[in-house]
Structures are given as structure tokens and as C-alpha cells.
Design a protein that fits this description.
Elements: H1 7-12, E1 18-21, H2 27-35, E2 40-43, E3 55-58, H3 60-74, E4 79-83, H4 89-104, E5 114-116, H5 121-132, E6 140-143, H6 146-158, E7 168-170, E8 187-189, H7 192-207, E9 216-219, E10 222-224
Parallel strand pairs: 1-2, 2-3, 3-9, 4-5, 4-6, 6-7
Antiparallel strand pairs: 8-10
Helix pairs in contact: 3-4, 5-6
């Protein structure tokens, strides 16, 4: 939990404001901090934030939807999803985007093809292994992020599967790791720099006691197609 400082104490410590990135605290803790007069902006909250707290995030729903549409356009119909933690807003939004893209062509998401856990390469390899060992395995697996996708690549390699000839793999975020794999990852690029600039701009306005009309800002994502996806 946040040990929320009073404004006077924050000033003595040399901290006039803060940018909180992926804060694990629930909305109630953030609200208490705000009520004490300490200015801050949240970037990519994990849990639903109060409406009157400034938030900057990426378009997770739209990004995931576009990614699934890409796989569907290639011809994939049995798509596995390695989602993030069930209590993360980004995980819920990305899974909803995936489900929405499937629904558009009349496909119901198969719960047997979905796993949820912490977004790490270890989780990606373990969970992907479970899906690939099914009697009817997926032809594509979507990773919650690029680290999870690296785990999927490892699971495929252990089973002698070629990517993308035997299995298409995707990530999310487009960090440097996405271009360090073989093949390079198809992923969704988050506007991380722009999110940072927007957060700084908002927190400066808060310090200057300006009124913020758009408290929740969502920035567009971009599909980046590389070598890890192909027709099944």
C-alpha cells in the first residue's frame, strides 16, 4: 500500500509530485493519496482507478483486437491466449479485444485455450506447453507481452515445432526483446514514450494547479507484423 505523504511532508522531502507506473495499490489507496493534496498521475493502472485521478494508458482492447484480426486474416481459427493476471485491467481489456475479434466472425472463445498468470517468459513456456500438448492444439498463441511470447517460442522449440510454419506466435508491447528473437516477433507497439511525455505534461499542470478536463487519456497502439506469424 502507498504510505501517502501529506503535502507539507512531500515538500520537505523534495518531492512535489509523482508519476505512478503500474501501481499495485487499489483505487481506494490512490483516492486517499489524492485527498491529502499530493499531485500525481497514474500510468497503466492495474486496477480500476477513481474517475477523478489522472490516468494515461494504451488502447489495450483495440491493440489486442487488431492482433487477433491479423491472425484471423491469415486463416487461424484455433488461437490460444496466454493472458496476464486476472486482476489486471490491461489483461482484461486485451482478452476482451481478442474475444471481440472472434465474435465478429462468429467464433466463441474457447476457455480451454486460455491461461492466466504473471507475465513472464517462464509462465509463457509452461502455459504454452500445456496448450501445445492438447489433443487438438492451437495453430497460433497470443502472448500477454513480448516476454511471454519468448516463453512460447521456447515451448515450441522443445517440441520441434517451427515458428511460424507450425505455430504462429505474437507478443505485445514491442520492447527491444521483440526484435532479438528468431524469428522476430509480431507484436503490438505501445506508445511508451508518448505515454511518458503525456504523464509528465499532466503532472506539471497539476503542480501548477491547472484544471484537467480529460482525466483519463488512452493513446493508440500499432500492430507490428514480423516473422513470427504466417498462415496455418
Amino acid at each position: 500500500m502507498i504510505d501517502a505523504p501529506k503535502p507539507t511532508l512531500a515538500g520537505r522531502a523534495g518531492v512535489d509530485a509523482a508519476i505512478l507506473i503500474l501501481p499495485p495499490e487499489p483505487g481506494e489507496a490512490l483516492q486517499r493519496l489524492r485527498e491529502q493534496g499530493f499531485p500525481f498521475v497514474v500510468v497503466d493502472p492495474r486496477t480500476p482507478p477513481p474517475r477523478d485521478i489522472p490516468v494515461v494508458s494504451a488502447a489495450h482492447f483495440t491493440g489486442a483486437r487488431t492482433l487477433t484480426e491479423h491472425l484471423l486474416d491469415l486463416g487461424h481459427r484455433r488461437i490460444g491466449v496466454l493472458a496476464g493476471p486476472q486482476n489486471w485491467l490491461a489483461g482484461e481489456a486485451r482478452l476482451a479485444g481478442h474475444t471481440s475479434a472472434l465474435a465478429d466472425i462468429g467464433i466463441l472463445a474457447d476457455p480451454a485455450l486460455t491461461r492466466s498468470a504473471e507475465p513472464t517468459a517462464h509462465y509463457g513456456e509452461h502455459a504454452a506447453g500445456e496448450l501445445l500438448d492438447l489433443a487438438d492444439p492451437p495453430t497460433a498463441i497470443i502472448g500477454f507481452n513480448d516476454k511471454v511470447a519468448v516463453g512460447i517460442l521456447a515451448a515450441a522449440a522443445r517440441r520441434g515445432l517451427r515458428v511460424p510454419a507450425d505455430l504462429s506466435v505474437t507478443g505485445f508491447d514491442d520492447i527491444d526483446l521483440a526484435t532479438a528473437t528468431t524469428p522476430q516477433l509480431t507484436t503490438v507497439r505501445q506508445p511508451l514514450r508518448e505515454m511518458g511525455r503525456m504523464a509528465v505534461s499532466l503532472v506539471i499542470r497539476l503542480v501548477q494547479q491547472h484544471r484537467l478536463d480529460a482525466l483519463h487519456v488512452e493513446l493508440a497502439t500499432e500492430l507490428v507484423v514480423r516473422g513470427s506469424t504466417a498462415a496455418p
